[in-house]
Amino acid sequence: MIDIHASTEKVIYRLIFNDTTLELIQVKDALTYKLLGTYEHITIWPATQFLQSTTDLKTTLKRIENEMLERVAWFDKQ
After folding, report:
1. What are the distances in angstroms from CA 20 to CA 4, 32, 37, 58?
2. DSSP annotation string for 25-67
3. Does the pLDDT value for residue 46 go beyond 80?
4. Cα 53 from Cα 36, distance rounded (Å)
5. How far apart are CA 50 and CA 53, in angstroms?
6. Minimal CA–CA distance to 37: which of 19, 18, 12?
7. pLDDT tens for each residue of 56-77
């Protein structure tokens, strides 16, 4: 069982599993845990809007690696 507390809502989404299979999604009141209903599916968004597009992932990873090598070289000189 996993409870997800949505920061923008006053409900808790309770996900109930049977081993690795999601069996039930309950919606509960965040204060009383009273059952408000069930859903067949829900969409859960990240807490922040800062998402990175994966279209330029190779370029981004190469830039990170280059910066890492520069920093390692700087620390080696110290």
Report:
1. 17, 28, 23, 33
2. EEEEETTT--EEEEES------SSS----STTHHHHHHHHHHH
3. no
4. 36
5. 10
6. 12
7. 888 989 999 999 999 999 999 9
Length of the chain equals 78
CA atoms within 13 A on the CB side of 34: 4
In this structure, of 28-32, 34-38, 57-61, the range with the lowest mean pLDDT score is: 57-61
The token pair that represents 56 in the structure block: 């330029």
pLDDT at 38 (0 to 100): 96
CA distance linking residue 14 with residue 24, whole number of Å:
8
